[in-house]
Amino acid sequence: MATGFSKPPSSPASTDSSSSLLPASDCDQAYQQLSECFEDLPDPRGGQGVQHPFVSIVVIGLLASLGGAQGWEDIETYGLSHQDWLSSFLSLPSGMPTADTYRRVFERICPSVFERSFNHWLDQVVTTLGAQVIPIDGKQLRGSYDRNQDQSALHLVSAWASEYRLFLGQVKVADKSNEITAIPALLELLDIAGCIITIDAMGTQHEIARHIQAKEADYVLALKENHPTLFEQVEQWFETAEANEFKCIEHSYDARVEAGHHRREKRQVWAVSLQQMGPLYKQAQWKGLQTIVKVARTRHLWNKTTYEVMFYISSLPPNAQQLGKAIRQHWSIENQLHWVLDVTFGEDASRIRTGHAPENMAILRRWSINLLNQETSFKRSTRQKLKRASMDEAYMLKVLGASLPLQSSLSEA
């Protein structure tokens, strides 16, 4: 299959082109890595009238996303701005593609097949996750709705490796459905053995707990009023236990205080085994259930103090420190993935909404976050990394090759 890649031509040492200053071996490695990821991605276009190699279009889309592109015109501008460099390792017989070309191609690419290309790269990077906390959460791309076509906004459920700040995969929530059906499909795509899966109350379902256990993983699931009988039973038990200061009750307790951003937060965690609590409502339906957790958060802000209590069910032993850390890490998917997608990549504001383009562009953004997170030599914000990658071709190559140290460190873990 023609990949759209060609051997970078040698250029005289005396040329003033910025791309000629880049080591040839780095360019070789870049196009080799990208070629391996995309060589099996089928071209959705018909053969007649095709002017631009398919993989060249996809690669420019990824590089432009790494440079902060938020739409088709942005991708075209990136390509034109770096035409000399891109031509050194991509086949571009008809010059740079236009914005409409990128739109038509990304509208037609099958998202599930496209994500397999992403997973090919991820498999090369992640040899083992170990005892990783993996939060799973949903996100809506608010700007992807189309009122004229009666098309609702795209809703995706994503998995996030909190310790290594890696996006692991996503599944689209079907129309007229919800995250309950999408989460098992996402779990099926992931190798989560030995990991701890954290999900908010929407995913606190018997079948999801069984699915996690069947994959040889543990869970920490938020318990709210969507299970009213169990929630009320747990809430009342803890009220009684605290009133008696947990007298004659074996339990694990941990307290942490953190300060920053003009606030001070105290988190208290109590973990109690089922044996201490006695039989719970429909307890047998929760596969592997061992522990009930209570978390109390007191936040002192500059103008007010808030108090919040949450309950969780878990297949882990009653270790308050471990469970508290896992619950805390769940919020990394909001702070390090969803917030970055909206604020830095402008995902919520994106009006890309036709065909498969919204889902495919979501994959490119998440791929970009993974690559930028693994590049640690430039210790700045993701926004500054985007800007530098868009301007500095040598830094772009460094970002593309940043996965190699991670693969080594994971292998040694």
Description:
Helix 3 (72-81) packs across helix 5 (99-108) and helix 7 runs parallel beside helix 8. This protein has two domains: 18-122 and 354-412, no CATH class; 199-328, no CATH class. The chain is elongated, with a radius of gyration of 24 Å. It has helices spanning 24-38, 54-66, 72-81, 83-87, 99-108, 111-125, 179-189, 206-214, 228-243, 274-277, 320-330, 332-343, 357-374, 382-391, 393-400, 403-412, and strands at 133-141, 154-161, 166-172, 196-199, 218-223, 252-260, 263-273, 291-300, 305-314. It is built from 16 helices and nine strands. A nine-stranded mixed sheet has the order 3-2-1-4-5-9-8-7-6, with helices on both faces. Mean pLDDT is 87; it is low at 1-21 and 404-413. A hairpin with a 4-residue loop joins strand 8 (291-300) and strand 9. With 413 residues, the protein is an alpha+beta fold.
